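Running this now, will post back.
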Amino acid sequence: MQTRAARLTAALTALVAAVAAALLTPHPAAAALLTTRPAVAAASLTEVTGFGSNPGALRMFRHDPPDLPANAPVVVALHGCGQDAGYAVDSGWTALADRRHFSVVVPQQSTANNPSMCFDWFQSGDIARGTGEAASIAQMVDRQLADVRGDASRVYVTGLSAGGGMTAVMMAAYPEKFAAGGIVAGLPYGCSDAAGGPYPCMFGWANQTPAQWGDRVRRARPGYPGPWPTLTVFQGSADGTVKPSNMTDLVRQWTDVQGADQGADLSDTVAGYPHQMYRDPAGRPVAETYGVTGMGHGQPVDPAAGCGTAAPYVLDVHLCAAGRLSDTWGLGLG
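Update: finished.
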C-alpha cells in the first residue's frame, strides 16, 4: 500500500504533467496556423532538398535576397511549437535580410518527429553532435554556405521557445559554426537532463551552479578550445510557458563558458525594457539580456517600425528582437 507521501508525490507528478501538457498544446489559433502557413512560406521561402543525410528528418527552407552578394552572413531561424518555416517571415527576419543583404536558413519540424511541431531540444538523440536534428541543421548550414558562397565566419542562429532550446543546442554542439546565438523564451543546453525532464526545465526547476551549467556545454564539444558563440536572450516577464528564470540560467551557463563573471557590466533600458550586458575579462561583450516587462510567451516584434507581423506567439511589444540581433551581430554594417 502506498504511503501518504508516495500518494502526494504521485499526485503532484500527475498535476505537473497535466499542466505542462496544456502549456505545450498549441493555441487554437496556432493550430490553424499549421494549415494556413505553408502558403505564406511558399511565397516567401524556397525549399531545399538533398542537403545531406538529414538524420533528424527535418525540412530546409531558405530566403536569399535577389541581390545577395558573395561572402554575405547567414542567419538560421528556428520556429517554436505550433509554428513552421513561416516564423521567419512573421518575426521579421526575411524582410531584414532583404534590407541588409544576408540570407536566412529556416529548418522546419514535422509532426512525425513531434506532434506539436516542437524541435526536440530535450531528446538525447537530437541534441548531440553528429546525431538527429542537430546534425540536420548543421548540414543545412553547410549546404547554404556552399550554395551562396556565404561567409563561414558570420553564421548566426536564433529561435523561439523550442527553437530557442535548439539554438542553445547548436551553440553547444557546433560552436565552431556559429559566431553568436539569439535565444527567445528558450532553455539552457542540457536543461532537461539537469531538471529531470523538459517540463521541470521549462518551469525553472533545474538547480545548477554556473560551473555545472558550463560543464554541460563543454561536454557537448570535448576539447574545443574556442571561441564560443556569444549569447543574446529575450524573455517575457509574464511568460507562463518558459519561466523567466531560464534567462538567468542561460546567462549563468554562457558567462561561465566564456570565462566571465555573473555580474552585469552594463544595465540600461531599450524601448523601455531592462537590458543588461556581460563582458569577459578582456572587456568583450559575451552575453546580453532583454527582459520584456509584461510580455507572455512569444517573439517580440514591432510592426509599426517595419519589424514583423503579430501572430500567435509573435507579439507586438514595440521591440524588434530580430532588429536588435541584427544590430548586435553587425548584419548589413559592412
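Residues 202 and 242 are 5 Å apart (CA to CA). More later if anyone needs it.
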